[in-house]
Write a structure and sequence with these properties.
three-stranded antiparallel β-sheet; single chain
Length: 162
């Protein structure tokens, strides 16, 4: 269902010229969305169909996270990186972060949040141990906790995606 909706909406956004959308374009979007969803299911028949992303509580939590803790961390990280560029005080390195997250969605949300924050970049994820390997602009310890690098991001990822 997610693939169908995403495909149909993407097609409609691509053909939209700022005015109205012709009914034929809607029909084409529905046909293409259906075909892409059927092909995706055939390519990966073991993939379970989950609708947990439709939960409005998760959506509200994500929006609170996005415009709250993530936005604050983004601004702070931009200022920190700007000061490090000006002063030249950097100590880069790759560190391992134990996340303790159970779902792939939560791990992906955390990895992307880390990557979007200046000064950090997720370079690898270990699916078995649920750890992330992060390039950090200012390594202060060899065995950092997740809170040293990304603050409350893991707790928010757990609340949103698990």
């Amino acid at each position: 269902m997610v693939i169908f909706v995403a495909s149909a909406l993407t097609y409609l956004l691509l053909v939209w010229a700022g005015g109205s959308i012709e009914w034929l374009e809607v029909v084409i979007a529905l046909v293409f969305g259906g075909l892409i969803a059927v092909m995706a299911k055939r390519w990966n028949p073991d993939m379970p169909l989950r609708h947990s992303w439709l939960n409005p509580v998760r959506l509200v939590r994500f929006l609170v996270y996005l415009f709250g803790p993530f936005l604050v961390a983004l601004v702070q990280a931009n200022l920190d990186v700007a000061m490090r560029v000006i002063t030249g005080k950097i100590n880069p390195g790759i560190v391992r972060i134990p996340t303790g997250l159970a779902s792939d969605g939560a791990l992906t949300l955390l990895a992307n949040s880390i990557t979007l924050t200046p000064g950090t970049l997720t370079v690898d994820a270990n699916d078995e141990s649920r750890e992330l390997y992060v390039h950090w602009i200012n390594v202060t310890t060899e065995e950092p906790k997740a809170s040293d690098i990304c603050g409350t991001f893991p707790e928010w990822a757990r609340r949103i995606a698990e």
